[in-house]
Design brief:
Elements lengths: L9 H20 L9 H28 L7 H23 L12 H24 L10 H22 L8 E2 L3 E2 L1 H26 L6 H17 L9 H59 L3 H14 L5 E7 L7 E8 L21 H8 L3 E3 L12 H6 L4 E9 L2 E10 L7 H22 L4 H33 L6 H15 L4 H12 L10 H4 L7 H7 L2 H9 L8 H7 L20 H16 L10 H10 L7 H13 L7
Helix pairs in contact: 1-7, 1-8, 2-3, 2-8, 3-4, 3-5, 4-5, 4-6, 4-7, 6-7, 7-8, 8-9, 8-12, 8-13, 9-12, 12-13, 14-15, 14-20, 14-22, 15-19, 15-20, 18-19, 19-20, 20-21
Amino acid sequence: MRSLLDQHPLRTAAWLLGGLSALFLAIWLAPPHHALEGISRYQSIHLPVETLSIVVSMLVFGVAWNAYSHERAANIIILACASLAVGLIDFAHMLSFAGMPVWVTPSGPEKAINFWLAARLVSAVALLAVALRPWTPLQRPNTRYGLLFAAIAISALVYWIGLLHHDNLPHTFVEGQGLTPLKIAAEYFIVAILAIAALIFWRQAQRSEPREATGLFSAAAITILSELSFTLYSDVTDVFNLLGHIYKIVAYVLIYRTVFVGSVQEPFRRAVEAEDSLRHANRALRTLSAGNKTLIRARDEASLLNDMCRAAVEEGGYLLAWVGYAQQDEERHIKIMASHAVQPGYIDSLQVSWKDDARGNGPSGISVRSKQTHICQDIATDPMFAPWREEALRYGYRSSIAIPLRDNDSVFGTMALYAATPNAFTQDEVALLAEMGNDLSFGILGLRMRGERDRAVAEQQQYLSRMQDGLRDTVQAIAATVEMRDPYTAGHQRRVADLAAGIAGEMNLSHEQVHAIHLAGIVHDLGKIAIPAEILSKPSKLNEIEYNFIKTHPKVGYDILKDVSFPWPIAQMVFQHHERMDGSGYPQGLKGEAILLEARILAVADVVEAIASHRPYRPGLGMETALEEIQSKRGTLYDPAVVDAALRLVREHGYQLKP
């Protein structure tokens, strides 16, 4: 088995620590000597070295503080505030070093050492706090100002004691003799704190959680070398004094690099996570859409089950799908009724039950017993999947979900899906798949009840209605995903959808067109799921880059919806809802009749709702202001017939936006 160091970023850290440790041992074993003879000559090294360390400390604070976001772990803010305090105290240490001019009180070794120990203690305690604290955001974002105040207060306290009451402090250095036992003990105490922090960071780095753990482990370990150096010098110009300062700068630079890289990567990481979540939701949406069409076409139960499994694999992209019915025999077997797989064969020897035993404690058995969807996010490590693990991994299955098939309060079967990656099932995807399970259950039961012709006709109407409701609920679920990321516009899509449907009705469009416009309205801003939440909820005017980013959302929404088989051109409606009659809209610059009528209706409804309702950067301006806007741009930006219908709807029929 390969070592963790051969597979992990810790390998680089180990090489760095090994080299620095070798340097430490080489100097320790070499004959003692001074780095530079005389305080004045040593100052030429000490002053720029300390200045550099102070600059790096302030950079750590500045980057981490200004890159703060509500989603980022508070550990980085703790590290930032501690770096501010350390930098301020190191500044006092630099001005107090032997040979420096008088600063409040005469400079000297002990005065400098007192400030040094205070800075090192603050740094060590901060690293330990960061290591021990869970990597979670602040519950109250304004708490960071309390941490900032604490850092400044600690620095002020150290200044007060070190400058005005240093005579009351115990001795740490004796001229001609070197360090006192107290000073050495204090350094070892700091080393002990750092060692605990380094050990915790090491264990976190082995799990790769958090990403900053490797850098912080390296910084803590190198700081230990720095502290050990400061237990060995006998004079302030000793080579160990210089070595300790060099190690300190290396540790500071590693902390800065860790904070800087994390701050740069954080927004990209969130964007990747949003894209991944969207991809999973889109996969489930394709499966659900294909399943709905299968349900509508189905004429018998066997073909329904086979077609549903085929749709999940071929349309949804899962590796395997099967449906099984719970048997009421003594062994409580789950009989596999239909399946479809990218690589057939796994099902042939599969034995599953819903009994509370080893073969009944997989996702399928648990879903039947609990009547709830059950997920195995990692087949390779989940102990409940042990009876089938080896065979499943051989076929490339890494995660699985089982969705119960219900008949009112009872469960008569389960549908299982298998994916190629661990942790493949997100919360949104699970919700959509559960909806698919409900639809499949309904379809199965519906087919079983078609024995009598009269009841079959009524059931078919109910079934189609349920499918429409399922489609609407699916669209609304996707729309809610966007609105959860942007609380300021929560309900915007629903209000636009309702208003657009009202305008369409006022124009005497068909029921089907009105329904299609309403569905398109519900997801017209779906593309905003790819826009960072900070831009969506920005309380001030957007800059040009941010506005251009916002303008990509119709295309993103179109890309998400274009492969979903709706009975209407929903994707094109979403794509065109920001086009204008004179060609000044975006993203395609379409003009006049080249824009879908449905998109022209959505455009007017979107503008009216946006003006009338509250926005992140301003309060709502009211319905009358909104109507004046579309009336003034009638024929230039907006379709005259649509504007006239909107004016009649509001002014003559009293239409009001729902809260």
